[in-house]
């Protein structure tokens, strides 16, 4: 199933906003077996939208558009699709009523007349309900080709994809009888993980993204539960021996969600002490709702003075070992535990570049310490590559990896009575 | 000048990486007057790259490709461009030598034989040197159409665009005799700013992006300095009366860079105290090199307990007014000054959603306080819209706006002897 994604809006071609919709859709479609061949972005221009629709129609079987479903005159998706596919758009009284109700409920005002446009839907098409915003989406099928239009607002688009479109494509277009099961692994190269998984002799795919590898397994619906437990027990066995952190899931989840689950399940409260990452780790952890249930807070000690005055790192430690050192990082972790009265802390120092610091260490040098309140800790010295942003994000990810490793080590020791 | 951007690589169409190159190029090209009409992403597939090249060639005058210039077999840009444009690629001994030297210098190893491919350049084309990585770029002109190929690595692509391509397009393709001058305004709607700027009767453009508006002025080279000071003095006059923060610049710079300049020029050291933003503000400020020169650090007090124990907010304050309140935020700002011995502090509390907190206030409610060590402060209560991520980023941006407002207010008072 060859697919084109078309993202529509002059704000994209002018570079005013970064198109993240196509990235989300490509990844999600890839997982269920749809092969995205082209991503085409075009401004709010009728001729050019038609040009792109034609290109997509000639070269692929499934076309998904996002954007251009708003109520204003520059929202041209409905017009262009109607013209290109020769499909009439008709007013749906029930959708109009639902849009009117949403306006009353969420904005406390009557629906502006202009929004009537959003209640027009393709005759004979399938309507995709929009529970988050006003414009519904739709599906049109013609000569073995399928066109889907979704709104451009990421939250609306994602909700409609997850709640309806993903299942529709699986069941009705791909006619799949399979479901996915996910494994997320931190700290193992893709090729190495592949070697292990391939021993299972099952259908799978891997996605590698800077230190994180997702493996996707495809099981037949009627074999799902059995196959899932087989995979889980085989891999738990294989991976537990190696030095990696891994999670299983029925969905493709992000790292902060996994971290939250891990800490909550063990009832561990976390605090941080960040230098070079400057708050990157905290904001990553708190990007997920409910992080407050395990994350108490952190100190961003960006200057040496604040390491001493706020985090109570000894002056001699910094003098003797520099601010970027294992010794300083250990003290930061220890004092973070005390200051926040947490069960566990993560501390990071390092050099994000482009310049180095008084330690004259190489750019990309990073020290990470994860410490339990009983004093046990794991530490790591890393040499990371890339630009400033890349180094900050990689360091934060590695810190999370180390913290989870420590949690699992501790719980293993407890269970085994050590 | 109608332009297509083609980003090449299966990692994009599979959704493994987010294409940010096209966003950077669209914005930068828009500023110098190139009209990007299509952004086309395609995988490493010869037929499909040729399909996209054909579409771009038929519909636009300038084509810029990124990616596919690496040394491996799936890097097909050179082959495809050669075939499509009928241009022969020949080995450049001098580029080969320079690639060999880079390998010795940066990796301490000899150039692998496979990298020879990167020394092939189009006969009669213009070569764009790559000072950051190994693959050079090139420009081919044919029948009034121009094709440019740049590497896909963002840092290489950006450096080559800024150092060479931007000027080349301006001077040789657009034949412009103009230069740009930028104004960045926080906290004023685009339409309102437009009203003021239009009084100047000059050529300009505006870009609005969630609370920040950039205005771009176009002056003839020979009139640049004079026009610039005219614009500066007119707008300084008009905008100083209003309640906004604004900056002038010869380049399109980001907010953290402006903030750094502002604090450094006044010699003010900053600390933060963040609740709902969870470190978002700190990591934003420290995303720019050299932030350490003014940013001392911050506390992320995500839990009520840490507000009390670490930031020393009085228990009664939280009990009487809730954690999300002006009263709590003021105490956080005050105590951050003391803890970090800073000249100024910024504190934020609020509700990022999707749930609310014990205060039962609406999602998007945010309190911000910016305070000088003399005790003077500005505060703001906001109702922000959008999802969790949006609310966190908007709150951080608004906090920066308030802080700079306070700096300017204070320095005005000092100057006027108040």
What does this structure look like?
2 copies of one chain form a homodimer. The first copy, chain A, folds into 3 domains: 172 residues, MoaB/Mog-like domain (Molybdenum Cofactor Biosythetic Enzyme, Chain A), CATH 3.40.980; 76 residues, Alpha-Beta Plaits (2-Layer Sandwich), CATH 3.30.70; 160 residues, Maf protein. The first copy, chain A, is 42% helix and 25% strand. Chain A contains 14 helices and 17 strands. In chain A, a hairpin with an 8-residue loop joins strand 6 and strand 7. At the A-B interface, helix 2, strand 2, helix 3, strand 10 and strand 13 of A face helix 2, strand 2, helix 3, strand 10 and strand 13 of B. Strand 2 of chain A pairs antiparallel with strand 2 of chain B, so a sheet runs across the interface.
CATH-assigned fold name of the largest domain in chain A: Molybdenum Cofactor Biosythetic Enzyme, Chain A
> What is the helix content of chain A?
40-55%
Please tell me what the overall shape of chain A is: globular
Strand composition percent of chain A: 15-25%
Radius of gyration of chain A: 26 Å
The chain pair forming the largest interface, with residue counts per chain, is: A-B, 77 and 77 residues
Looking at the chains present, what oligomeric state does this protein adopt?
Answer: homodimer
The span between the termini of chain A is 54 Å
Strand order of the largest sheet of chain A: 2-1-3-8-7-6
Broad CATH class of the largest domain in chain A: Alpha Beta
Mean pLDDT of chain A: 93
Low-pLDDT ranges of chain A: none
Strand tally of chain A: 17
Overall tally of structural domains of chain A: 3
Backbone structural class of chain A: alpha/beta
Would you identify the CATH architecture of the largest domain in chain A?
Answer: 3-Layer(aba) Sandwich
